[in-house]
């Protein structure tokens, strides 16, 4: 169990700013604070914090750029519908998509 998860945001800030504490503890407090503020990226296999959204779905900066490239390539007719793997991987999270449209790997 993480000893930081029961602390308030104010307590986490105090830990982060207290230079007399061990560096690793301060980093863990910063990570816990970020985990609370931003959810994790919903792209399968990506473990980074999601600071952006794509179709109301939390994604990280790198995945958002990849999704944008995939979308532009699709609409420029460089990709076939079945090649849109990233967009189909987050389709279950889209509120307007039906589950039957999701391509299962």
Descriptive overview:
- The chain has a two-stranded antiparallel ribbon with strand order 1-2.
- It is elongated.
- With 105 residues, the chain is mostly helical.
- β1 and β2 (57-59) form a beta hairpin.
- Helices cover 42% and strands 6% of the residues.
- The protein starts with 8 loop residues before the first helix and ends in a 16-residue tail after the last helix.
- It is built from four helices and two strands.
- The model has no long low-confidence stretch (mean pLDDT 84).
- It has two domains: 1-37, no CATH class; 52-101, no CATH class.
- α1 (9-17) runs antiparallel to α2.
Would you kindly provide a brief summary of this structure?
With 105 residues, the protein is mainly alpha-helical.
| DSSP helical segment count | 4
Q: What is the global morphology?
A: elongated
Tell me the distance between the termini.
Answer: 34 Å
Give the proportion of residues in helices: 40-55%
Characterize the main sheet: 2 strands, antiparallel
% residues in beta strands: 5-15%
